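Replying to the earlier thread about multi-chain prediction with a worked example.

Input:
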Amino acid sequence: DAKTTQPTSMDCAEGRAANLPCNHSTISGNEYVYWYRQIHSQGPQYIIHGLKNNETNEMASLIITEDRKSSTLILPHATLRDTAVYYCIVRVRRNSGNTPLVFGKGTRLSVIA
Amino acid sequence: DTEVTQTPKHLVMGMTNKKSLKCEQHMGHRAMYWYKQKAKKPPELMFVYSYEKLSINESVPSRFSPECPNSSLLNLHLHALQPEDSALYLCASSPGGLGEKLFFGSGTQLSVL
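Result:
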């Protein structure tokens, strides 16, 4: 699976949009981008995933560049409860079964009042 | 029911003890996972069961022994652990095969004395 690079930490003011970048320059055509987050003392939580089109759900939006070498997770109106470690993961999706998630170091997002 | 339940939440054991961690889900998921997470580090994959068969073992020492008695239940048997095995042990499940959306439990915080 392709390796990802994320900033170690970021701050965001409460109520503002949080934009979390991820570089995956070695991504191949059949690799999906996944985002999970882990709030302190909890297990990781799925947020969103995509292949090449932008995606949006009730939690966040995922913007993938046209060359697919980077992506941005957007939390449109960050709250204090969004303070967590955010993991960007690229993973092959195969018809015969998928490879499991392998977590990188992630970005520690702190939402500040 | 969209929960993965792990018991116990906390466990303290000596190096000569035998203990078991338990994980349960009632979402009809057919893949289940064990991850290990040291403090301030990302989760590391240990084992994957797919359709109740062990499909991935990430070269985990034999003092950790997984068991999948049925599609809803996953155990991790512990024997002769070392203090460096102290960590948060996370269980996860996904719908079919090795699906992209993993649901995680809150983990068992293990301390080996």
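The mean pLDDT of chain B is 93.

Feel free to reuse this layout for your own posts.
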